[in-house]
Design a protein that fits this description.
alpha+beta, nine-stranded mixed sheet, 26 strands
């Protein structure tokens, strides 16, 4: 840190420390100014390294504190509260609009004025807008719609958009339902450089995809690698890249910037420009390329590092890589200190830091395997041996870079993607050189497009072949046994022997049971739920294969995601409702399942050593007009002390049948959905169950799926705690030897109870 040759390393570390302290502390701007001013004054009279570093820490602490306090988006959110309101707003589009599959365009919108309850005022907050119009970056719009807070993530393990946008001071969604509720009042506004960069990117994207219109996957791969365009790439393309540790190819970074810099250096050499003039031309061009690719952290880091390296030419001094990396981090944090808390910033600098710190050590370690006697003259070594050494050195160099990058990102990849990818060591060694060729040919194609469209298409066809080869190799590496494993992030054990997570699936259901080393799933939600949260949740829990799947009834909102789940998680046992129904989703599953166990009243099974399940309804071969009246009712006995009753979407008729049976319905926890008629949870049934806690689904539409106020009052009047999942999100139940605990994921409401 105190080395005079790499002073920016200490500066970057102190900047990071100052931001972390400021983010976790209350806003104290006046004391921050006093501390920073005092440090600056002392440093002027007593030049000491530790004083200078303390000044940096105080400065970044103050900088982040000021940004926290100057947050118009947060102030507007506090003022509006959680209530849905109708507003009229004018402002400017500040992000590139993205078109969603439902034809709505999503973009960030910086307010100029806002009209609430007939009162108009100036405001500089940023909103996230959904509108059916076709705005462009920099357009000035007038919009009329409903404003509400950005909703939080409802289930663990999924991307938390609310937290991500909060780091950008965006707290509110504005939904403009109809096209005519918005109007473009002025075009061509916004930052000129960004507008030019977006137009340049659109031109490049159009030319790179010319002649490849019938291969959308190839186009998505080429434009993603060359221009960093990821929103056009389907998830089924990105997932194998993620599983093989090669997703970084879609993030414009050092590889891309290095190629651009190399080509520009060749051009300036051919033009016989002096070294300083060449550097002066290349540096802004690299930053413009970063703007073209969306100003992501990885491209900004690479461009800034290249700027430091080329900047050494002006001062005729050697430039060190770690110092340049630290300088890039410091500059990015000066402009936006919130970047420190993003996965992109952390991964980008962790990977490059790992390469700079570990590459040479790994390379020397690998060379020991083929080292010849150092006292043996090279002239006496056989040519075959020399050729072997040369080839091995090349391979060892690539493997050293791949291993160093993998080591640098190992922990963060597990934290953000729940992955451990040993196959990435080999996959990157094979795929990165091919990606280099794709990028180089893409740049040549863009250059050729300036003179000849036909020649550009020829290069695009060459890229088509390479892109297909890359896709085939990535899928091959992704399918290798133990090539990638999903692992739950490390956490401190709390002593619970069984967990039951009731996921928030709207009007559907999905419950995850973990006891010991067994993982079972009760229902799989809808097909949409599986894509939106269930797959991510299971990966976040480190589940690569399920031990069992239980299907409660034929409702597609409960079992629609089972087909995809069977392909990916391959449950060892599938237990199905034996009742006869008319569900097309259920029939498709029956055709797919060669071996399934049918459940009916009286069935008993044990998912784990401390859990047994007894089926209370329906009877074998039972028929009903509605699938909800055939739903499995199961009573879980956990640790021989706790009972949980799962009634799914059962209604009053099922409750009457259960009350007429001799079964002991008493349970600590009742987990229920809503009957299709909206009738369930009768007072007589609750008196028989005597639950301490009810976990119930509730959605606003259709209205029958929403918990009524009268029923909620009746439940609470009986002294029963109610967790409504429209307020709590997912609910995590933990069972200990003598007690259980329930916690809501969204509102963190907690209920603890000693076994009766």
């Amino acid at each position: 840190m105190s080395s005079p040759r790499q002073p920016l390393l200490g500066v970057a570390l102190m900047a990071i420390a100052g931001i972390i302290v400021a983010d976790s502390a209350p806003t104290l701007i006046a004391p921050g100014c006093l501390v920073a001013g005092t440090c600056a004054g002392i440093t002027l009279f007593r030049s000491r390294t530790w004083l200078a570093l303390l000044l940096v820490l105080a400065t970044f602490w103050l900088l982040h504190q000021v940004r926290k306090s100057d947050a118009p988006g947060k102030m507007l959110s506090l003022r509006l509260g959680d209530r849905l309101r109708l507003i009229t707003a004018t402002g400017t589009v500040t992000s590139e609009p993205k078109l969603s599959p439902n034809d709505y365009t999503t973009f960030l919108f910086r307010l100029s004025t806002i009209t609430i309850d007939g009162s108009t005022e100036s405001n500089a907050a940023i909103l996230r807008v959904r509108w059916k119009g076709d705005p462009q970056f920099g357009d000035f719009l007038r919009l009329r719609g409903l404003i509400e807070p950005v909703p939080p993530a409802q289930n663990p393990g999924v991307f938390d958009l609310r937290s991500y946008l909060a780091r950008r001071d965006v707290y509110q969604n504005l939904f403009v339902r109809y096209l005519e509720d918005g109007a473009t009042e002025q075009t061509g506004g916004g930052n000129f450089i960004f507008r030019t960069a977006i137009r340049s990117r659109n031109w490049m994207q159009s030319n790179l995809s010319r002649g490849l219109e019938d291969s959308p996957e190839v186009v998505a791969l080429i434009t993603g690698m060359a221009l960093g365009i990821r929103h056009d790439a389907p998830d089924d393309i990105e997932e194998p890249f993620q599983q093989t540790g090669t997703l970084h190819l879609f993030a414009v970074a050092g590889l891309h910037v290095g190629i651009i810099a190399q080509l520009l250096w060749i051009v300036t050499s051919l033009l016989r420009l002096p070294r300083k003039a060449a550097a002066a031309a290349i540096i802004p061009t690299l930053f413009f390329y970063s703007a073209i690719t969306g100003l992501h952290v990885s491209s900004l880091r690479a461009a800034t590092m290249a700027g430091f390296l080329l900047g050494g030419i002006f001062f005729e001094r050697p430039v060190f890589s770690l110092n340049s990396l630290a300088g890039a981090a410091t500059l990015i944090l000066v402009f936006d200190s919130e970047q420190l808390f993003t996965s992109g910033f952390q991964l980008s600098f962790a990977v490059v830091g790992g390469i700079l710190l570990c590459r040479d050590w790994i390379f020397r370690f690998l060379l020991r395997a083929i080292a010849t006697d150092p006292f043996l003259p090279r002239s006496l070594v056989r040519r075959a041996r020399l050729l072997f050494e040369a080839i091995f050195r090349k391979l060892a160099g690539g493997l050293a870079v791949s291993a160093a990058a993998w080591a640098g990102s190992l922990l963060l990849i597990n934290v953000y993607f729940f992955l451990f990818t040993p196959v990435s060591l080999v996959a990157n060694l094979v795929i990165v050189p091919l990606a280099f060729c794709v990028l180089a040919i893409g740049l040549i194609s863009l250059g050729a497009a300036l003179f000849s469209s036909a020649l550009s298409i020829v290069f695009n066809q060459a890229n088509w072949s390479l892109a297909h080869l890359i896709l085939a190799l990535v899928h091959l590496f992704a399918r290798l046994p133990a090539g990638h494993v999903y692992l739950e992030p490390p956490h401190w054990p709390d002593g619970a022997h069984t967990e039951l997570v009731v996921l928030e699936a709207g009007a559907g259901a999905a419950l995850h049971l973990r006891s010991g080393k067994s993982d079972w799933l009760f229902d799989a939600g809808s097909a949409r739920d599986y894509d939106h949260f269930l797959r991510d949740y299971l990966h976040a829990r480190g589940i690569n294969r399920l031990d069992g799947l239980v299907l409660s009834h034929g409702d597609s909102l409960h079992i629609g995601g089972a087909l995809q789940l069977l392909d990916e998680f391959k449950p060892r046992s599938v237990l199905d409702n034996g009742a006869i129904d008319r569900s097309s989703a259920h029939r498709a599953l029956v055709v797919r399942l060669a071996d399934r166990q049918l459940l009916a009243r009286g069935s008993v099974f044990s998912p784990a050593a401390k859990v047994s399940v007894r089926v209370l309804h329906p009877a074998r071969g039972a028929k009903a007009k509605a699938a909800d009246d055939q739903a499995l009712v199961m009573q879980l006995e956990i640790g021989k002390r706790h009972r949980v009753l799962l009634v799914s979407d059962s209604g009053r008729s099922t409750e009457k049948t259960l009350l007429a049976s001799p079964n002991d319905l008493r349970s600590d926890i009742l987990i229920k959905g809503q009957h299709y008629r909206g009738e369930s949870g009768s007072p007589e049934f609750l008196d028989a169950v005597q639950p301490r806690l009810i976990i119930a689904t509730s959605v606003d539409f259709p209205t029958r799926e929403r918990i009524s106020d009268d029923w909620e009052h009746m439940v609470r009047a009986r002294g029963i705690s109610l967790f409504r999942q429209d307020r709590t999100g997912a609910v995590e139940l933990k069972f200990y030897d003598r007690e259980w605990q329930a916690t809501g994921f969204v509102n963190h409401e907690t209920l603890r109870s000693v076994t009766r």
